[in-house]
UniProtKB/TrEMBL annotation:
This is UBA domain-containing protein. GO terms for cellular component: membrane. PANTHER family: RHOMBOID-RELATED PROTEIN (PTHR43066), UBIQUITIN-ASSOCIATED DOMAIN-CONTAINING PROTEIN 2 (PTHR43066:SF21). Keywords: Membrane, Transmembrane, Transmembrane helix. It is a multi-pass membrane protein. Residues 262-272 have a biased composition (Low complexity). Its main location: membrane. The chain crosses the membrane at residues 54-74, 86-108. Residues 299-339 form the UBA domain. The keyword Membrane applies. GO terms for molecular function: serine-type endopeptidase activity.
Length: 339
C-alpha cells in the first residue's frame, strides 16, 4: 500500500493491521481458528471465549485478501465521518451483526448455517450497506449490452468474499448486511451512539498518535471525498468529453477522481491571466472605433447554486464561481476550494 494512504483513517489502519496480524499468526502457528458451532457455545462455555477472537482472524488467505481490501476501500467513511463516529459505527454494527448471526444459529440449528465464521464480516458488510445506499456512481460503461457503473468492482469483491466458503461465509456476509441496516436505522437510534468522552480523550492521547500517517497523500482539495463524488455524479453530463476519458480510471478508494483532477487543472488554467494583444493605436486607424460590448455572463442554475451552498459556500461566491466556469458545478467547486 502506498505511503500515506491511511491518512485521516487511523481506525481503519488498526483494523487492517490487526486482522492481518492475527490471521498470519494463526497460520504460522498452524492453529487456524476453528469454526464455532451452537454446540460449542451451549455445551462448552469455555470455548465461547473464542467469540472475542472471531472479529480479528480470517480462516483462509482468500478471505484475508478480499476482506482487508474491502476494508481498505471503505476507509473513505472514516475520512468522511471522522474517527470517533467511525469507531462507534464499527462497534454497533459488529455487535448487531453478531446478534443476527446468533439468531440464525437458533433458527437454523439443524442446518449447516449454525456456524460462526471467523473474520470481521459484520463490519465489512455493514460498511458495504452504507456504500450501497450513500455512495453515488461516478461513471457508467457497457459490457455485452449491460450498463454497469464503477461500483461493480466493489460488488464483485464482496461477492467473491461471500462465496469463499459457503454457506458459512455467505451467512456471515448476510448477517453483516442486516447488522448494517440495524445500526443505521432511525428506529433504534444506534447511529447516534458515541463512546464516552474520556475514552475518546485516551484514544487521542495514547493510541491514535501511534496509528497516524505523517505523509500526506495528494488530494484534489481538502474536502470530503463523498461530497465531491456526489458533485461529480450530478455534473457528469456537463463535463467536456475530453475530461472523462482515461483519466477517470485514476481513482482513490472506491471513487474516481481523475476527472476532478482534470477539472482542477482546467480551472487553474482559466484563472490565470492571459496576455492580450495591445489595442491598436487610434492614430493608425481611420474612422471611429467600434464600441465593444461586455461579454454576457453565463446563466447559472439554482440547482448548481444550491449544491455549492450545501458545501458551505455563500451564495454570492457560488454564483461568481459558476459564472467563471460556464455553470459547471464541479469546476466551480474546485475553484472555490482553491480560492
Amino acid at each position: 500500500m502506498a505511503t500515506g494512504q491511511f491518512h485521516n483513517a487511523p481506525i481503519t489502519k488498526f483494523l487492517v493491521l490487526a486482522t492481518t496480524g492475527f490471521s498470519i499468526l494463526n497460520g504460522v502457528l498452524k492453529a487456524p481458528p476453528r469454526l464455532l458451532t451452537i454446540t460449542d457455545i451451549v455445551e462448552r462455555p469455555a470455548r465461547a471465549a473464542r467469540l472475542f477472537l472471531l472479529p480479528w482472524t480470517y480462516y483462509s488467505a482468500g478471505e484475508l485478501l478480499f476482506g482487508t481490501l474491502l476494508l481498505y476501500l471503505f476507509r473513505v467513511f472514516e475520512r468522511h465521518w471522522g474517527s470517533p463516529k467511525f469507531a462507534a459505527y464499527a462497534f454497533t454494527s459488529s455487535i448487531s451483526s453478531l446478534l443476527v448471526h446468533l439468531g440464525l444459529f437458533i433458527i437454523f440449528k439443524p442446518l449447516p448455517f449454525a456456524q460462526l465464521r471467523p473474520g470481521p464480516y459484520g463490519l465489512v458488510f455493514s460498511l458495504l450497506w452504507r456504500y450501497i445506499v450513500e455512495i453515488p456512481a461516478i461513471s457508467k460503461f457497457s459490457i455485452f449490452g449491460a450498463i454497469l457503473t464503477d461500483k461493480i468492482f466493489v460488488y464483485l469483491l464482496a461477492i467473491q468474499l461471500l462465496m469463499t466458503n459457503p454457506p458459512s461465509t455467505t451467512t456471515a456476509g448476510i448477517s453483516g448486511l442486516l447488522g448494517g441496516i440495524i445500526a443505521s436505522a432511525e428506529l433504534l437510534q444506534l447511529h447516534r451512539f458515541r463512546f464516552p468522552a474520556f475514552m475518546e480523550s485516551l484514544a487521542r492521547q495514547y493510541i491514535l498518535p501511534l496509528l497516524q500517517t505523517n505523509t500526506r497523500p495528494y488530494t484534489v482539495t481538502p474536502v470530503l471525498n463523498a461530497n465531491l463524488a456526489a458533485l461529480h455524479a450530478q455534473s457528469q453530463e456537463q463535463m467536456p468529453s475530453s475530461l472523462l476519458g482515461p483519466d477517470s480510471a485514476n481513482f482513490e478508494g472506491p471513487f474516481s477522481f481523475g476527472a476532478l483532477r482534470a477539472a482542477r487543472q482546467q480551472a487553474q488554467a482559466q484563472s490565470r491571466p492571459q496576455r492580450r494583444p495591445p489595442p491598436p493605436n487610434a492614430a493608425d486607424t481611420d474612422g471611429p472605433q467600434p464600441t465593444r460590448r461586455p461579454q454576457a455572463s453565463a446563466t447559472v442554475s439554482e440547482d448548481n447554486i444550491s449544491s455549492l451552498e450545501e458545501l458551505g459556500f455563500e451564495r454570492d461566491r457560488a454564483v461568481e464561481a459558476l459564472r467563471r466556469h460556464n455553470n459547471n458545478v464541479e469546476m466551480a467547486a474546485v475553484w472555490l476550494f482553491d480560492n
